[in-house]
Amino acid sequence: MRVLVVEDRRQTAAFIRKALQAEGFAVDVLHEGDAVLTAVEQTPFDAVILDVMLPGRDGLSIVRQMRERRVGTPVLLLTARGALNERVEGLNAGADDYLPKPFALDELIARVRALCRRSSGAPAVVFRVADLTLNTLTREVRRGEHRPELSPREYRLLEYLIRHAGQVCSRMSIVEKVWDYDFDPGSNLVDVYVRRLREKIDAGHEPRLVHTVRGQGYVLKEGL
Questions:
Q1: Nearest to 76, CA basis, from 190, 68, 66
Q2: Do the beta carbons of residue 95 and residue 42 sit within 8 Å?
Q3: Is 36 in contact with 47 (CB distance < 8 Å)?
Q4: What would the pLDDT profile of 104-139 be if each residue is shown by its tens digit?
Q5: 129 - beta bridge partners?
Q6: CA dist 127 to 1, 18, 44, 135, 142, Å?
Q7: Residue 218 is inside which H or E element, if any?
Q8: How many CB atoms lie within 10 A of CB 11?
Q9: What is the rounded distance in angstroms from the CA atom of residue 99 to the CA atom of residue 74?
Q10: What domains can you pick out in the chain, each with its CATH number?
Q11: Cβ(107)–Cβ(15) below 8 Å
């Protein structure tokens, strides 16, 4: 799921981005309001976290214009103003939810997940390779009768590989889709996470499903 965070305070935006990425979201960040409409019209975000008080165009006018242009992306408004009439104003402008500052990151993440589930309206997709299954709605992973406990990043890596089962995924494509370019692509972090994934879904099971294609990347499939 891809989320746009619009927050002029860079430290706050960084905290939100880090928390969402730790939960497996891809996150884009803007620090002023003037670029938001173009961004939401060009990119299919699953949700927008939008501060009300922004340089340039303010959050309320942004969400009003989004709805006028029939952009239906769910919007969670953030503001230091918590009065009831101001919350009502935000919801009437077209926002889907409202969270006054200061807020707990756990609550923010829960609200974003709820917005994404509500807006998708799509049934769960279950991917299967051999006896490995991944349910995109419940995020449940099974290998036969075993239910491995995956971290959010491990889950995101597995989902990317299983969506491209049988195709070789390069390290750079994994960096782009799983880490959103948030670390040095020259590091060995991809290899470390692939090794962890193997330990959780391949160890003790046959056939082995996660394979290294030397010089190219990784592939999820039955046998090579």
A1: 66
A2: no
A3: no
A4: 888 999 889 888 877 665 555 789 999 999 987 677
A5: 132
A6: 17, 28, 23, 7, 11
A7: strand 217-220
A8: 8
A9: 14
A10: 2-120 (3.40.50.2300), 126-220 (1.10.10.10)
A11: no
